[in-house]
Structure formats: structure tokens, C-alpha cells
């Protein structure tokens, strides 16, 4: 099957994958296969692996390569897969990115390196990244200043996609950021600046509004990926009210999942309860749910199920 690459018109739901671990902390290969199947069954258009939610910073280089290879082999070209490759050094980023592309990845996701939020520094860094990866590797620019500590202006995003043809996608996770989506959409697809695909993160917390502002879809890891798919499809069909009705049914549990740090443990526990993975463990240092947390989650999941059936 021909390798499918992301481009400037990529749209839909690219689910951010968790990385499953066993109780002793090893990467769980059997659960990796189950999780891939779970995402495929939910109807997602693509996947993104080894992002922040995937605890990529807690994996060894060997584990990252093994996980990427297993996911890509399991998917076998059925949907495109973006691979997170952010690294402190360009050489490491290049080596891993080339490995991922050779294994069948659809593109590489890269965030700015920590440091002063100086436009020239960010642009200079991505020039080096693009030069190292070459013109045949599509890049998703991850804009997540709440985690990276690097705010990036609309002007810089437009400069990057205008001057570097490899940068075809924006993963938008600024918050507040709705006006930023509007500005990027208005500033791209012009005579001067080519269109850029915009997929949004932040757990899907603002998804209906993001779609109305011109986003092309979602790139996030909400543990009910079918909701993301249904909301995007309803919006595409010209029925934003239906999209918001679906979204509203999941909002309490989506909000609960969005707690900084702790939310990853919630997300993995939901995936475990839904049969997608065998163990909800996060790698240390990482949160764990206590008995009260588990009881809260049980109630939220039961209420969500009732609301969804009522739709």
C-alpha cells in the first residue's frame, strides 16, 4: 500500500495515542495492538503517536522506535500516522524522523525548543529542522505554549508555512486561542501564503468553536474518540447544532479528563475500562487514581453512557 502523507488539506480526527504500559512499567505490546484496533474501530481519520500524551519523554530511544514500528505495522497503511519527534538535538530528531518515515509514517510533529520566545530564534530553529529532514518529510508544527513555555505569534506561524514548504500542518493548542485560529485561517490560503491544515488539541475542550473558526479537525487524545469523529462529521455536514448536542453529552467527562497532569491517568483508566488497554499505569513520575477518584469516574462514565443513549 502506498505511503499516505499529510498535506495542507489534511482534515478529520487524528487521535493522539496513549502509550500502554504493563504493571511493571514496560511497554505493553499486546495492549498497543488492542489500542490501535480500538482507535480504528472508532472511525478516526489518522493517528498521532509519541506526543506529550504518549509520555514520549519517558521512553528510551529504543522503546520509541519499537512502539512506532509496532503501531505502523499494525495500521498497515489503513490511516495516516504522524509521529512526534521533538528532541533537544537536531541530529537525534533527524535520525528518529528518518526511521519513522522509512517505517511508513505520514509526517513528523515537532514543537519549538524551550528558550526565549524570540521570533528569529523559532524561525531559525525550524529552518534547521527542515534542512535536516529534507523536502520529502511533511511537518506538523505543534503550538502548545502552555507546555513548551514558548508562545508563538500568528505572524511567525504564517512565516513558517510560507517560507518552509514542508510545514503543512498546525497542531493548535494555544489557550485561549480561538482568535488565533481565525487569524491563521484568514492569513493562509492567500496569494502570498499557502493554506495550512489546522488540527486542534486541548482534549477537544473547545472543538465546536474551533471548527466554526476554520479548524480542519481535531488532534487530541480524548478517550471517547467516536465523539470527536461524530462532532467533526456533523459540522462538515453543515449541522453545527447537532455537533454541539453530541459534544454536550460528553462535556462533563471531557472536562474531568482535562485536569493538568492528573488527566492522563484519568484518560488511561477510561481506556482500560473500555477494553482498549490492559493497564492504566503511567510512568513515574506520574499520577494514580485513588478510591475517591475511581468512584467519581464511575459516576461520570455511567452518566455519559445515559446521555449518549438519549441522543
UniProtKB/TrEMBL annotation:
Cross-referenced InterPro entries: Aldolase_TIM, DapA-like
Alphabetized GO MF terms: 4-hydroxy-tetrahydrodipicolinate synthase activity
CC per GO annotation: cytosol
Pfam families membership: DHDPS
Keywords: Lyase
Family note: Belongs to the DapA family.
This protein's name: Dihydrodipicolinate synthase
Species this protein is from: Lutibaculum baratangense AMV1
Amino acid at each position: 500500500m502506498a505511503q499516505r502523507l499529510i498535506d495542507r488539506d489534511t482534515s478529520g480526527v487524528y487521535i493522539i495515542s496513549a502509550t500502554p504500559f504493563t504493571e511493571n512499567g514496560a511497554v505493553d505490546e499486546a495492549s498497543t495492538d488492542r489500542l490501535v484496533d480500538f482507535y480504528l474501530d472508532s472511525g478516526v481519520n489518522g493517528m498521532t503517536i509519541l506526543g506529550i500524551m504518549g509520555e514520549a519523554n519517558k521512553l528510551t530511544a529504543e522503546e520509541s522506535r519499537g512502539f512506532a514500528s509496532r503501531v505502523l505495522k499494525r495500521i498497515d497503511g489503513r490511516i495516516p500516522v504522524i509521529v512526534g519527534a521533538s528532541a533537544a538535538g537536531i541530529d537525534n530528531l533527524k535520525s528518529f524522523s528518518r526511521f519513522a518515515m522509512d517505517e511508513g509514517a505520514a509526517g513528523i510533529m515537532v514543537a519549538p525548543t524551550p528558550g526565549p520566545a524570540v521570533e528569529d530564534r523559532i524561525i531559525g530553529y525550524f529552518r534547521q529542522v527542515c534542512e535536516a529532514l529534507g523536502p520529502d518529510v511533511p511537518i506538523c508544527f505543534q503550538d502548545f505554549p502552555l507546555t513548551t513555555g514558548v508562545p508563538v505569534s500568528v505572524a511567525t506561524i504564517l512565516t513558517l508555512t510560507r517560507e518552509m514548504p514542508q510545514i503543512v500542518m498546525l497542531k493548535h493548542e494555544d489557550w485561549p486561542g480561538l482568535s488565533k485560529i481565525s487569524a491563521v485561517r484568514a492569513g493562509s490560503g492567500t496569494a502570498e501564503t499557502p493554506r495550512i491544515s489546522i488540527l486542534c488539541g486541548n482534549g477537544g475542550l473547545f472543538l465546536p468553536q474551533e471548527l466554526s473558526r476554520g479548524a480542519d479537525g481535531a488532534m487530541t487524545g480524548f478517550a471517547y474518540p467516536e465523539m470527536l469523529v461524530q462532532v467533526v462529521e456533523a459540522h462538515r455536514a453543515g449541522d453545527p447544532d447537532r455537533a454541539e448536542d453530541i459534544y454536550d453529552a460528553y462535556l462533563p467527562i471531557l472536562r474531568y479528563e482535562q485536569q493538568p497532569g492528573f488527566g492522563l491517568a484519568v484518560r488511561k483508566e477510561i481506556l482500560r475500562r473500555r477494553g482498549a488497554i490492559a493497564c492504566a499505569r503511567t510512568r513515574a513520575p506520574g499520577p494514580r487514581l485513588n478510591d475517591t477518584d475511581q468512584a467519581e469516574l464511575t459516576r461520570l462514565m455511567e452518566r455519559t453512557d445515559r446521555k449518549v443513549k438519549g441522543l
